[in-house]
Amino acid sequence: MTQASVGVSVRKHRSAVTNGRKPFLTRTTRKTPEYRRLADLLAQLFKDRGGIENLSIEAQSSCRVYAGLCVQQEIILGKLAAGESVDSSDLARMAYALERARRAIEVPKRPTARKGRVVAIIPGAGAPITGKETAL
Q1: Is 130 domain-assigned?
Q2: pLDDT tens sequence across 36-49
Q3: In terms of C-beta distances under 8 Å and separation of at least 24 residues, what long-range contacts does 104-112 make, across chains too?
């Protein structure tokens, strides 16, 4: 049974936002650094998740929110680096919002370098024998 046979209309044409041709519904100038950075972040987020065609609408929206928050945070950090006065509570709220948005889209965290024990496995000995602690 198809969707059309049960009375549900099937749209063959998708909006420019849905199919990835445009990042926003409203007209925007593509010349601003903020626009270009946001478009770059969106493209990378979509690529990291297998392409926009493989993402649900919810995941696409979450990626857009995350990218927008990243751009806003970069603007705040740029002001801070330029010596301008920045409200630290704004920066803290931005960091918290970014963490929540990251969890929503499951942005993989970069693996941290692990330092620890070196484990030697001796064939036929059963359990591994740990060597002395060394930093790799």
Answers
A1: no
A2: 999 899 999 989 88
A3: 104/62, 104/65, 104/66, 105/45, 105/49, 105/59, 105/62, 105/63, 105/66, 107/45, 107/48, 107/66, 108/48
